[in-house]
Structure formats: structure tokens, C-alpha cells
What we know:
- By secondary structure, the protein is α/β, with parallel strands linked by helices.
- The chain has three domains: 3-112, 3-Layer(aba) Sandwich (Udp-n-acetylmuramoylalanyl-d-glutamate--2,6- Diaminopimelate Ligase, Chain: A, domain 1); 119-325, 3 Solenoid (UDP N-Acetylglucosamine Acyltransferase, domain 1), CATH 2.160.10; 335-368.
- Helices cover 21% and strands 27% of the residues.
- It has seven helices and 39 strands.
- Helix 3 (62-67) links the parallel strand 5 (52-55) and strand 6.
- The longest helix has 22 residues, at 347-368.
- The radius of gyration is 27 Å and the shape is flat.
Amino acid sequence: xxxxxxxxxxxxxxxxxxxxxxxxxxxxxxxxxxxxxxxxxxxxxxxxxxxxxxxxxxxxxxxxxxxxxxxxxxxxxxxxxxxxxxxxxxxxxxxxxxxxxxxxxxxxxxxxxxxxxxxxxxxxxxxxxxxxxxxxxxxxxxxxxxxxxxxxxxxxxxxxxxxxxxxxxxxxxxxxxxxxxxxxxxxxxxxxxxxxxxxxxxxxxxxxxxxxxxxxxxxxxxxxxxxxxxxxxxxxxxxxxxxxxxxxxxxxxxxxxxxxxxxxxxxxxxxxxxxxxxxxxxxxxxxxxxxxxxxxxxxxxxxxxxxxxxxxxxxxxxxxxxxxxxxxxxxxxxxxxxxxxxxxxxxxxxxxxxxxxxxxxxxxxxxxx
Length: 369
């Protein structure tokens, strides 16, 4: 069954509920307990009711599981062995309860979102040369410029702007006031939240100064932005177009709100980037990386696959090996911070003194020998 068909089926089932056996048939997993248990909603362990499904992804919440009123719980086989009271609810055993829960939650979310019908709102402005699929939904005040292509079942909400020659893939959803500049491409099933801007000029200026006179000369940004399939882009995030080559966002990348990705960057497949991160121009980030909130990454660097950079870190050199990297200073009491800051200001002097002491010790050892 296709994902779209499954979502529609579960949307239809929502009001009458669906059973654990039905879930297992559609998403996999093994039912332990009552396979006929009917599920009508989702909730955390400590709030779930008898007709709701919950999940255990962290063993530290086992105590909540023992006391839960949930009708059923998603759980790993290893954690199920730790459960003392299995009679209180049923279980659906799966290797990844969190991801399983997310897929079921998508179906409930799809059922709760007002469905849009294919068609073009009367206030939309569409150039005659643009190609809009008959199954697409074009909202109020949307602007679609010349030679743009809008794919099957694409949804463009109010005030979205699509520039000349843009290609929007099948099942793409652009929320209100998303701007896609000329020539950019969004792959199938991309989800772009309100206010995001894709394809604005990269920050490229050449200095031309003679003393105090001169100017910054703008470098034309002639590349585009190429976005792969199943990419999600958060609200008010900006992805700049390339200078001469393209900015590339590969398949499955998930980008949070208020992220800045500069010109000519390449973000590898299935990488996730948290809010307020800033990535300078021509930086290449590998596949399956995790970039924490407010991370700053300098330009022209390369991060290997499976690199994790923790929140508020600054990356000034390439990271050639997978692993966890941190450069931020954790929050401590202000008095301690002031003392440490004073020491940091004098590190160069301390280093010079250490070198002098090493020289004295070495000279003493040489005399003794």
C-alpha cells in the first residue's frame, strides 16, 4: 500500500478506531496481548487513556509504563522483558518504538488537517507559460512566474511565490508566504514551512578599497538551489543560491526554523540541522550528521559523514572523522565564569611562563647529566 493510500485509510479509520492487529499488518511488529485493542488516539505514558497508544523509547520511563492507563504501548523486545505487570495493557513490539509512533502519529495528523481540493484560487496569479498539474492545489494570492513547473498533488498555500523556471516536485507542500527564487528545484514530498526563502542571493562581495575610498563590489549569484526528495525546511529558514555552482540539499535532510545556509553549501542526505544554526559559504556537510542549535560553521570546511556538533559550538576547522564535537562552554555560576574568563585572558602569559620553566628544568637536567 502506498503511503498516501495508507494515510487516507487511517484517516477514514480514525473515528471508529483501528486495532493493534491492523497496525501490525500495516507497519510491522508483534502484538503481545489483545490484538483487537482499539486505538483512537495517541498520548504519552503518564497521560494516556485506555483507547490511546503510547510508546517507551527510554528505559528510564519504565516506572511510568508500570502505572500507565494506555490501552497499548509500543516497546522493544528488551524493554518488554523488564516489565513486571503485563496485564495492565497490550504491547506492540518493534525495534524502534519512537519511529513507529511517529509514523502512526503522521496518520492521525493527516486526519486532523483540513483536506484541500485540487484547483487554483481565483486570486492566484499564474503566468501562461507555467505548467501546473491538474491535481495541484494553489491557494489565495499565490504567484507563479514564467516556465515554472508545479507537480502532481503539490500544495501551495496563500501568498507563496514561485519564481521563473522553478520546478516543484510531486506532493510538495509550501506553507504560507514561502518564497522560491528563479531556477530553483524542490524534489518530491518536500515540506517548506511559512516564511522560508529559497534561492536568495548568496552573500558575495569583492573588496575594492584604496585606503578609505572604494567599495564592496557585488558578485553575481548565478547558481541555483537544488533540494532533494523528502526534505523538510523550517519556518523563516534561508537557503542561498550558489555563486557559480548550485547550493545542494540532498534527500531526507531535515532543517529547523531560522537556519541560514549560505551559497554553494552541500548538505548530505539525512542530516538534521537544529534552529538558529549558521553555515557559511562553500561548506560541505556529510550524510547522517546532526548539527545542534545555534551552531556556527565557518566557510569552505568539510564535515565527514555522521558528525555530531553539539549546541552553540563554533566549527572553524574541517572535521574529518565521525564523532561528537563540542566547543561551547556549559552554563556555570557567574562568579565561576568570571574567574575562568580571567584565566583565559592570561593563557598566553601562562604559556610563556611554562616554556621558561621548561627551559630552566631542561638546562638543569643537562648540567646534572
